[in-house]
Write a structure and sequence with these properties.
The protein has about 70 residues and is mostly helical. It has one helix at about 10-55. The chain is rod-shaped, with a radius of gyration of 28 Å.
């Protein structure tokens, strides 16, 4: 195809493949960002729940705080 005098179809196909790859990479990046945000949300929820359990258990705070002396 490159040896032919009309290279337009080759470059049109190449551009099409490039666009498909870009689109797929953009989708993968969006999915990874969404997964990261979901994981961060889970971590915040777990940390909040752990804090509530600690308060209910009477811990009140870290061992070095004045409320535990």
């Amino acid at each position: 195809m490159l040896a032919s005098p009309d290279r337009v179809p080759y470059f049109a196909e190449l551009a099409s493949v490039r666009n498909k790859v870009r689109h797929r990479l953009a989708e993968e990046q969006a999915r990874a960002e969404e997964d990261g945000a979901l994981e961060a949300s889970r971590v915040r929820a777990a940390a909040g729940a752990a804090g509530v359990r600690l308060e209910r258990a009477g811990g009140g705070g870290p061992p070095w705080s004045s409320s535990n002396r």
